[in-house]
Amino acid sequence: MNADTNKKNKPRAFVQYIIERCQSNKGLAAALRRADNPDTEYQSWELLITFNIDLEKPWERLPYATITAAIAKAKVDHNGNSGIGRAIASCYEKDNDSDQAKAKLRRLLACDSVEEACRILRPLFGLINSKGRASLDYASLLEELLNFHWRSLDIKSRWAQGFYRRPATKDQLAEPTKEAAV
């Protein structure tokens, strides 16, 4: 395995490890639930250092701490398959065009830094855990947060596409829209 492959697999391996450790060690899971709080984040540092996370780089430390806390709070038994945009949309009954859902997405898309994105995600994880019907892909979200510093526009575009993407209805497939005809 080359260094690039190891770098790509590191978030997936980390997420799987956190899920397994939270299931087997309730004391550790309790400490990790506080990893997204600046005052108690230090309780997760020993685990982060085990994965060679540089604690002095907030653009690296905060995504790992945020995802760690989200997994510990959600008490998941496996990594999901929905991106954050799709997960936000799933929190609102049938109408993911609702003003509340759009406002939450817009606030996330307005983030200028990974630090701000991690802060905005904290309450969204609670919403997704309580109302969402989608199983969040923590590993992909961690990868996106780790790259946010360098590729924020691409990542925000992916989040928006996940939110707005809906399967076409039979009527939409049968009838071309006015825009398509022009």
**Cα-atom radius of gyration:** 18 Å
Distance between the termini: 50 Å
The fraction of residues in strands falls at under 5%
Label the structural class: mainly alpha
Question: How many H/I helices?
Answer: 10
Number of strands: 0
Helical coverage, percent range: 55-70%
Low-confidence stretches: 1-5, 168-173, 178-182
Overall morphology: globular
What's the quick description here?
By secondary structure, the protein is mostly helical. It has helices at residues 3-24, 26-32, 45-50, 58-74, 84-89, 99-109, 114-131, 138-164, 170-174, 178-181. It is 68% helix and 0% strand.
List the main descriptive attributes of the protein structure presented here.
182 residues, mainly alpha, 68% helix, globular, disordered N terminus, disordered C terminus
Protein model, in words:
The chain is an all-alpha fold. 68% of the residues lie in helices and 0% in strands. It contains 10 helices and no strands. Helix 6 runs antiparallel to helix 7. The protein is globular. The termini are far apart.
